[in-house]
Amino acid sequence: MNRNYHEQRRQHIDDVFKEWLDSHTATASRIGRTIHEDFHTWQQRSLAGYDVLYLFVDGL
Length: 60
Known about the structure:
Blueprint: H1 3-44
């Protein structure tokens, strides 16, 4: 097989991988934005309606 064939195949694989990576990067960004927005909303809520005796918070 000639060198040109291998270069074309490699370029095709690079193009496919880039397209896949771009689509997954966009998905990850959208999920990150949603999580951030949900967390911000959660932080702003009032606990005034609850009779809290103890508040235990656990997180990593």
